[in-house]
Amino acid sequence: MTFVVRVDENFHYMDASYRQTLGEFDTSEAALAAAKKLVDDYLDATHTPGMTADALLASYRMFGEDPFIIAADISAPDVDFSAWEYAPARCDEICLNR
To answer: Alpha-carbon distance 26 to 40, whole Å?
Structure first.
């Protein structure tokens, strides 16, 4: 079974013309790891010393990429992942550990 990671841009909210495909993955776990990595990469690159988790999250929600996962086989369930739910906890972790 194939899982596809699609990516919307938060800066162009609700504009599907900016939607891209990150890739196709053989397992839901691989697709989930890729989606999380995309969010983590943005947060890691954007974080600056002394930045608060709230400021980092605000930046992500304005300018970051919003990946989501769909199963290529319509009989399979989509993978339950929300970057907007994942990002706040990661912002807290990043800002506490740096």
So the answer is: 21
Along the 98 residues of the chain, how does pLDDT read in single tens digits?
789 999 988 787 777 777 899 999 999 999 999 999 999 999 999 999 999 999 999 999 999 999 999 988 777 776 889 999 999 999 999 998 76
* pTM of the full structure: 0.87
The burial of 83, by beta-carbon neighbours within 10 Å (0-12 exposed, 13-18 middle, 19 or more buried), is given as: buried
Q: Which residue has the tokens 């605000």?
A: 58
Distance between CA atoms of 53 and 59, rounded to whole angstroms? Answer: 10
